[in-house]
## 1
Amino acid sequence: MRDSVINREILATAQLHVIQPCQIMAGIQLAEILMWLSTVDQKSLAHCLPDSPQTVISSHCLRRGLAKAWIKGSVSSFAAAIVQIESCPSEPISFEQDIEDLVQILENVQNWDCIIVDYEIAKQLGSVIESALAHSVSYMDDVYFVPGRRIPKIGHACVRELTLKDMPLLEKTANDELKIGCWRDSCSLLTDGIIAAAIVDQQIVATSGTAALSDGYAEIGVYTQPAYRRQGLALAAASLVVNRVQETGRVPVWSAGSTNVASIEMAKKLGFKEYARRTYVILDRIEA
């Protein structure tokens, strides 16, 4: 899975400049066709997005009321759209035809510190941001993988799929990153998604699950507590989840920042192959 959604190693060391409205294109009168979408319109937008590995998270959150969204144009024929995931508001996702339309929308999005765009316009958007803010940006690819074959299960004595009966076990887990993905609550994840866990001494120490679902795809997420890494726990859990996803007829998707070597190596070990890339435009840290 995209690393919530970007590689946190980059952001953790940075004091980030957070953008507020009207800083990029101050003074521009926005057209009436720039719209913030209601929950109903968000669901319509989800249906208008192409179903692909790149849109799984946005589609999932739009359909479940777990995002904010803006468009330029109409829902059925937008020139640009930005989706801001509720659980990760600092990292909005864009779908654009025209960079000017994208920038107009971006003016209305609060508290972001990076944005994911098609790689063809990343440098152009970065130049606009640098010019308007006198603030440098950097770039990182977001890499999407899909299986090159049927993924077999990798057995491990500590790893099994969780069910609704395991909700108390999942709920008592202190680290929210073990509760994989973009779900309103643990019940939704256990009911509508798929999650497997490594359980040691009645504690969940690693998980993999469907972080997001669309009609044809399932975004896979993994997390392991630091003390239990490099023991094959996440690999075994992910293999179980991916296998189950393929049984449902959906295509598993694995996404990771291009600098997240460990995640990419795990994807390849499971049998995933690179499918596509988009690009993060990241506001560089402000030196103290």
## 2
Amino acid sequence: MNQPQSYVFDVRLNDFQRFVIDNSFEVPVLVDFWADWCEPCRTLGPMLERLATEYAGAFLLAKINADSEQAIASHFNVRSLPTVMVVRDGQIVDMLAGVQPESEYRKRIDAYRPRAADAILDAAEQLWLSGRQDEALQTLRDGIAQEPAELDLKVALAAKLLETGEMLESGRLLRALPEAIQKTEPVPQLLAHLATLEAAAPKADFSAQEAQLATDPNAHAVRLALASELQEVGEYEAAATHFLELMRRDRSFGDDAGRKGLIALFELLGPEHPLTGTYRRRMASLLY
């Protein structure tokens, strides 16, 4: 990274390319236009410097004296001070005029700083391209364990699994994504591909268990096994129905195995999945 020792540095015209543009391909660079006569600048400057120290290289702060570097200020059409320009990958991606609450600057920094998930995705892709598919898949699984909120990792793993024909794990990942994410590319395309593969695959046959339950609805072990197998193949609503029925019939079986099965299913699907809300309400009606 082309930077002095500090995460905060003064920039002039002759080093703008090196310190601002070039560095922006690695981390976001906040460019603070200020002047000695600008009273608000005296408030903003220390705040940004403190954030730069706190973030410890996750972003860089480039300070430009708009009076002594008028050519830069004019080029970027800076009309008032202070003005903070956010540069990422060589482009201006955001700009804030005047002194804003600290939270606004944090929001911009967090939006553009490198994520741990990005490094994981890059490492997995390099492994995949070099033919080390099992290592790539494990890298993504480990990444999900480390960064469970990063949905990009789950989508990437699901996509790679589909390429290897692993429908079950891929389906669990994709169908557990929030509904809004399921409507955002590439997820709809992946779900369509999954549906095609599932339609061509031999169907699991649960007719024996279903016939046994039709004869003996209180065959709780059979019902629990069926619910678990249905969940395994992605038949989540059918699985939830059997877990709920087991809970309704016998709370004592398997130490409330029906309720435990539903809770585990909710965790798999996530709080935004429509089945989670529906069956939480139905479960609650049995509890209270």
## 3
Amino acid sequence: MENERKKVLLALSGGLDTSFCAVYLREEKNMEVHSAIVNSGGFLEEELDRVAAHAKKLGVVSHEVLDMTAEYYKRCVRFMIFGNTLRNRSYPLSVSSERTFQAIALVEYARKQGFKYISHGSTAAGNDQVRFDLVIQVLAPEMEVITPIRDLQISREDEIDYLKKSGVEMNWSKLEYSINQGIWGTSVGGKETLSSSDELPSEAYPTPMEKSGTETLTIGFHQGEPVSLNGQVLEPVMVIRELEKLAAPWGVGRDVHVGDTIIGIKGRVGFEAAAARIIIDAHLALEKHV
């Protein structure tokens, strides 16, 4: 039919950028919007439920959770542990390493469901746009990639105004910062990271820094992989999750990464990756002794 709406699969995290994309694609592009969230280990079940409920309020026709946690650990994270991988001796490639696996999951789901269009909320300022676009174009060259945030070069303030005018209700104060959660760490971006001098306030980070003093932890390794925490045998993914809960409130693994972007300028992003930093440091120390 001539007036039939084109179906698009949107990578929806539930944050500001992808929420804007959902409404914009439906209202301005007259598309039938379906969404998927790729969980690489950073979301709890109740958080995934909140995203699903939010997608429904945004007018999304269908929403799917794609879990890549085990695959991401098996094919990526464990090798970063083996290599003690830290960019600039600080950043454990937390969220940036996930993007390839998130894009792969989106392509596989899009192909299975017959989508010809995929949309993501990456901006024009960083490398995520390239990570998503490259994977999609290599694995599914027949699919068209739609990037409203990048194409419109819209500010976060204008996104908020647009959503308010569209009747969308969100916790606007929390949207001052762009937060990406994953099993290997969480990135935090805001107005402070757009400059070379300002620092992110403590409250910008998802985990409150509320512990002080000292605490002793014991991590067990088998063939380079973390397999126990404080004497309790666990799957490596569970070691990472439980260690993050224990260590993040101490502020361990917090820093600001300064790296190169594809557009040729330096980019800054805050991150907290307590488990990643402790595991890599412990693995490195272990290598010295065996």
